[in-house]
Amino acid sequence: MPIKTYKKYKILLIEDEKDLAEIFAMKLELDGFRVLVEASGAAGIKTAKKEKPDLILLDLVIPDVDGFMVLKELKKDPQMKNCLIYAWSNITYKKKLQAAARLGADGCILKSDYTPTMLSAKVKEILKVAN
User: Fold this and answer.
1) Which one of 15, 58, 110, 116 is at 20 to 30 Å from 67 when CA atoms are compared?
2) Do residues 7 and 32 touch, judged by C-beta distance below 8 A?
3) Which fold has domain 6-126?
4) Domain boundaries, the chain
5) Contact between residue 28 and residue 35 where contact means Cβ atoms under 8 Å apart
6) In what order do the strands lie in the sheet with 84-89?
């Protein structure tokens, strides 16, 4: 059975934990998505504005520019209006998650609740891709 390809879907993973980023990016790529990875907020903003991904999985605790500021910056950019941005974090503080929602996060994914396979299924659900 051939593997379905979703290369038309571009995902930006902004994650500073290198091993975690590699594992999740590898699974998404194996499942046919085009994946870009950045380890800092500033690099994430630059890549997002250049590449205009369909979905950004944004860690909220990252170096230089934190995820909240990245979210604020990208959501105010009219060229990013079609990009979905999900907070991708282990932050469980309700006030922090509410802050991300107020800044325009389209949703939140708790890292510790997802295996790479589960994340890939969630991404397909978010992007409304048929399995």
Assistant:
1) 116
2) yes
3) Rossmann fold (3.40.50)
4) 6-126
5) yes
6) 33-38, 6-14, 55-58, 84-89, 107-110
- pLDDT band for 8, please (50, 70, 90 cuts): confident
Confidence of residue 4 (pLDDT cuts 50, 70, 90): low
CB 47 within 8 A of CB 38: yes
The CA distance from 89 to 108, in Å, is 8
8 A C-beta contact, residue 83 and residue 48: yes
Q: pTM for this structure?
A: 0.91
Q: Are 124 and 131 in contact (CB under 8 A)?
A: yes
Q: What's the Cα-to-Cα distance from 116 to each of 23, 24, 72, 99, rounded to whole Å?
A: 7, 5, 27, 26
The tokens describing 129, both together, are 């891709």
Residue 66, classed as helix, strand or coil, is coil
Q: How far is CA 80 from CA 21, 92, 117, in A?
A: 23, 27, 27
Backbone angles phi, psi at 6, to 5 degrees: -120, 30
Residue 123's nearest CA partner among 37, 56, 30 is 56
